[in-house]
Amino acid sequence: MPACRDFIDRLQLRASLHRLIRKFFFERHVLEVETPMLSSAGNTDPNIMSFRTCFSGHVDAGVRERYLRTSPEFPLKRLLASGIGDCYELGRVFRNAECGARHNPEFSMLEWYRTGWNQRDLARETVDLVQAALDQVGRVADVHVTTYGRLFQDHLGLEPHQAPVASLRMPLEAYAIDPAGLGRDDWLDLLMTHCIQPQFPLDRITVIHDYPASQCALARVRQDAVPVAERFELYLGSSELANGYHELNDAVEQRARFERDNAVRRARGMHEVPLDEGLLEILGQLPDCAGVALGVDRLLMCMAGTERIADVLAFTFSNA
């Protein structure tokens, strides 16, 4: 039975977006690279689950337990530390336990790094790329740039960096959320996904800067009166598309963050993840740079006007 025309159109849209991405970075002298999908280290983030597998070859080849990458971030940073300069990777990544209307355990990610840039410089380039993608399907989007604190003030009248947890819980009372095990950042995330994000206009790109320092991940922390992470997120309508950082290059601090992540994993009864010692070894040589990861499937969903990731995939997890 021949494939339906709509299905073929969606596959052609993906191919067209890939061409645009490569042309976009070629014209800006950003080098395309490929990095390993399997690693001896994993992502320690307690909110991200990695797929694990076992190498059955000779023990001299290295450790047997391997992880499918959740992003190409760590090896890309190792390349940056070696002096490669501006680079990007467009490829597949894997996250366990994430499957539904908007998530597939295997998906496409675009990640790129700019040396000598900070997160605000990179946010502007990310906007340029998203607008170029929308132009392919005859859409335009206004751009709204704000801060995390201002966003919460405007939508909820809350000061997210210092408001007590009891105040953060109040707007979520109607959702009957079980508070067991939830910390401050969990409530902030729930406020974003349940109360703020759904209000973003369909044809608007929203860029949010200056996240709480507790949500820094691999970003630098700026010591303002209230410390903030030099991090941005970009939304198109209510869809989160990209997450970027002014990258931390302090190995001691990064190791402490990884170890805190694993402590949370232990407390939750989760599998602890080996630290990426290759990354930590070179992090002090990482040049001043900013990096961002963008969900290609999520961008395609916006371009195609669908809420179902299945509509932009050749094969979903259930029929792979």
Written account of the structure:
This protein has helices spanning about 5-25, 75-80, 120-135, 150-155, 165-170, 185-195, 250-265, 275-280, 295-305; strands at about 30, 40, 50-55, 65-70, 85-95, 105-115, 140-145, 205-210, 220, 230-235, 240-245, 290-295. The chain is an alpha+beta fold and about 325 residues long. Helix 1 runs antiparallel to helix 3.
Strands, total number: 12
Largest sheet: 9 strands, mixed
What general outline do the C-alpha atoms trace? Answer: globular
How many helical elements? Answer: 9
What order do the SSEs take from the amino end to the carboxyl end, as H and E? HEEEEHEEHEHHHEEEEHHEH
Using the CA coordinates, give the radius of gyration.
20 Å
Précis, in short:
This protein has helices at 5-27, 73-81, 119-136, 148-156, 165-169, 184-196, 251-267, 277-282, 296-304; strands spanning 31-32, 38-39, 52-54, 65-68, 87-94, 106-115, 142-147, 204-212, 221-222, 228-236, 239-246, 289-295. It has 320 residues and is of the alpha+beta class.
Which helices and strands occur, and which strands form pairs?
Elements: H1 5-27, E1 31-32, E2 38-39, E3 52-54, E4 65-68, H2 73-81, E5 87-94, E6 106-115, H3 119-136, E7 142-147, H4 148-156, H5 165-169, H6 184-196, E8 204-212, E9 221-222, E10 228-236, E11 239-246, H7 251-267, H8 277-282, E12 289-295, H9 296-304
Parallel strand pairs: 1-5, 7-8
Antiparallel strand pairs: 2-4, 3-4, 5-6, 6-12, 8-10, 9-10, 10-11, 11-12
Helix pairs in contact: 1-3
